[in-house]
Model the fold of this input.
Amino acid sequence: MIGRLNHVAIAVPDLSSGINTYASILGAKVSEPQELPEHGVTVVFVELPNTKIELLEVLGEGSPIAPFMERNPSGGIHHICYEVDDIIASRDKLKAQGARVLGDGEPKTGAHGKPVLFLHPKDFCGTLVELEQV
Ligand code: CO
Done:
């Protein structure tokens, strides 16, 4: 069902510092910051030859990454994103097998303007999984 690894997301306490780490120190190409109020985060994408790294910073009150940042004040890997062809069919298949879909279970528009869903880490080897329809 799952396809390519679309990105690995790393939550950071300070986005400009994270951008500096990836752009200046590691020499990667980094996108302009994008505010996603619906997701409570500001993101940039680090473009790598075979995948992307998403750097996330808290945006506003009640950000879904705020509890993670409290547990990991210096940041850390927050989720991984796999590509799927049909997000509704994938969701329904996973739910039928007992997997928990976060939120109201309906896809939201992600940072690439495509539908995304998040799956409960306890059902996926302790890792928060994002599905993105491509
Ligand atoms: Co993501």
User: Anything to note?
Assistant: The chain has one domain: 5-133. The first helix runs from residue 15 to 25. The first strand starts at residue 5 and ends at 11. The domain at 5-133 is CATH 3.10.180.10 (2,3-Dihydroxybiphenyl 1,2-Dioxygenase; domain 1).
